[in-house]
Predict the 3D structure of the following.
Amino acid sequence: MHFEHLTSIHQMLLVILGVLVFATLLFWIWKKIKPGAQVDELMTRTKSWWVMASIFAIAALVHPIISFIAFALLSFAALRELSSISKNARIEDRSVIFWAYLAIPIQYFFAYMGWMLPFLIFIPVFMFTWIPFILVLKGHTQDIARSMSVIPTHLMLTVYSLSHLAYLLSLPISVGGRGLLLYVVFLTEMNDVFQFTWGKLLGRNKIIEKISPNKTWEGFIGGLLSTVLASILLKFLTPFTTYEAIGAGLLIACTGFVGDIIVSAIKRDFGLKDTGTVIKGHGGILDRMDSLIISAPFFFYYVYLLHIVR
Amino acid sequence: MKHLLLILIYKGVMPLFLKFIGVKITPKKRLQPNMQYIIVANHNSHIDTMALMSSIPAKDLNRTHPVAAATYFGKNSWLAVLSKLFVNTILIKRSEEGGESTALDTLGNFLSKGHSLIIFPEGSRGEPEKMQAFRKGIGVLLQRYPHIPYIPVYIQGTGKILPKGERLIVPYDAIVHFGKPTFCKAQTVETIVVNVKNKILRLKD
């Protein structure tokens, strides 16, 4: 098999495989030489990237429906995690949260069929009415306003946002859904790494110390520039011109950052830094998806407005 | 036949179902096969019994019995038959129904045959995430059979998945912490009960 006969997706998968093998070996050796919490954190991160990469590889090589199911399960696990750690939903909201779970297969079905309008409005219009309505029928008004806002927000963060990744696969072939999916996920994750690395190397001025003490202006700007560079290099996965790729890089870096600090702030509110309040040994899905939660829908509409509705 | 059925349920379907609804069982290596023990756990939900049965090595499933109240599961005969067939339960009378001595004798018989028990000393499921007082039956059993170790288990979060009195199962993250097999050294029934409860509570952190 000659390399030039492979499609851009296959090339990209090989690159990702190479990066992952390299990172896994590097951290493994690092752990052998100098064990510590930092390398453990990096190793868990790498492990979750292996999972993500496998989902994409299977989707690209076998059948796209597998990745719709995989993304739906990811949304499910994220929603389960968020409703478990949330202090805000009441115990009598159980049955309403059950309705929220039922929204997942419906939303992903719309994404699979490529029905844009139902996909767009099902959660923000229908579920945002249905959930308060069911809450009202239950008849407990104490703290009902809180439940009315919390449960739809959970749906927005875990189901609506992530389902945009799946919808990328339903975009017309000319736009190239699989490449775009790979592009946004890879760049978002790389942006995290770039911000982390630049922050470690140069970081001085903290952006928002109370929420996320490791975030610095140096890290953010270093990450932004590196991500833009990577977005131009990976342009072959997308229908973008160079300027559009630069725009996408800027958008992903900024929205990824926003998603990261939103999830950090939520976790801080739920006291996840304190022991005893959380169920130990669980979680981590939101941590892994934090940047994607915001970058995925923004990137999706960026592509949609530039290449589909014009 | 029954053993096969139990393996099919607790080694086949149930682990997948528990994973889906968010129940995690730790640590990975928790029970050796061919051991006799009394599993003692706090109790908030029917999910607890399912999770504990799924943790038992396949070989020992038909020799492990969750202990349940006859007044609850024996309410009608088909429920009693189903719980014996699918959950391998032993039904006993609660102490306030005057069943204390016969119940302890029944459990004693199973222990003498080398079988293991799963006991929830709170007696009933109670409110979600709140531990009630322990009954003293567990103390009496452990005093009578000091050569059988007990295994403390702390279960967190199942009360939200399926609380008492509800029928709808809703996924939530929950965790089942297994402790180590422990032989009971205390003399009086009261101290045994206190020790067991403390062991379970210590698994919380």
Summary: Chain B has one domain: 2-202. The mean pLDDT of chain B is 88. The domain at 2-202 of chain B is CATH 3.40.1130.10 (Glycerol-3-phosphate (1)-acyltransferase). The first strand of chain B starts at residue 23 and ends at 26.
